[in-house]
Amino acid sequence: MSTYLKKTSTYTVSLVVLLPLTLFCLTFLLPFSAYLSNPLATPAAACGSAGASRVAVRAAPATDAGVGGQQRRPGPELSVLVGVHTMPGKHSRRHLIRMAYALQQTAALRAAARVDVRFALCARPMPPEHRAFVALEARAYGDVLLLDCAESAEQGKTYTYFASLPAMLGGSGGGRPYDYVMKVDDDTFLRLDALVETLRDAPREDMYGGVGLPFHDRKSPPFMLGMGYLLSWDLVEWIATSDMVRRNAMGVEDLTTGKWLNMGNKAKNRVNIFPRMYDYKSAKAEDFLENTVGVHQLKADLRWAHTLEHFNLTRLEPSSKLHGF
């Protein structure tokens, strides 16, 4: 009988089965395990950092060093970390958002501000397939912040996000890594240039900004709506060290954030940007404001398409081979 017809040995079967599995673990899961303990050390080109090679600036003031410790020329005075709160399974939505913000990173914007967009996900629970796909994103783009929390907006995710950042980002010589940290929903589209323009003259200390309720309370709204709001870096550091905040971490996240600041007598500088951030109404041009900062309630892809088309993010250059598509 030909040797090719002989029964395959157990050793050969084991080798065939285990070798690909071992290579997969070494290639994806082991690096991802390291990423869980230090998500800011994963190399990749991240949205919001032209030529960037790491998730975010670590232990360096915003104007001194580039992403991953690379030297850069003195940067813009204003810096913002935008944390898009999403869930592990929303791979396609993250890719859409990633493109929408990358296209806004123009030379003019980068000269005015450093705006880094990151995706905030909880590590628990995470099925094996999501774990593998998120690991791919982390390696490819470097824009994922994996938090030690359960995936629920009312179970402390927002607290974990803010409280984790000082340890993740660090600082060099007392410098702050960002002037502002933003929490934004994954069904909100931000116009980054309008956001930067809004913040240019805003206070950089003890500042809480967003769409405040009641809408017309311009000076001291008790809380900002969860579609998107900002805290100055000093408030992020306070959240990370406050026992009172830790004890009150649970609850409806936008109300809870306002509660922390009110109970702690913080955020004396409140910036209410109503009506420039608002819920999507329709595809009609009159339902989008000229000075829009953000559009919320983009839960369906069609709403994203209408919004991106209105603000010209889908416009093709005349030289494109797809012109007229």
Automatic annotation (TrEMBL):
It comes from Urochloa decumbens. Its EC number is 2.4.1.-. Belongs to the glycosyltransferase 31 family. GO terms for cellular component: Golgi membrane. Coiled coil: none annotated. It is found in: Golgi apparatus membrane. One of its GO terms (molecular function) is glycosyltransferase activity. InterPro entries: Glyco_trans_31. Pathway: Protein modification; protein glycosylation. Keywords: Glycosyltransferase, Golgi apparatus, Manganese, Membrane, Signal-anchor, Transferase, Transmembrane, Transmembrane helix. This is Hexosyltransferase.
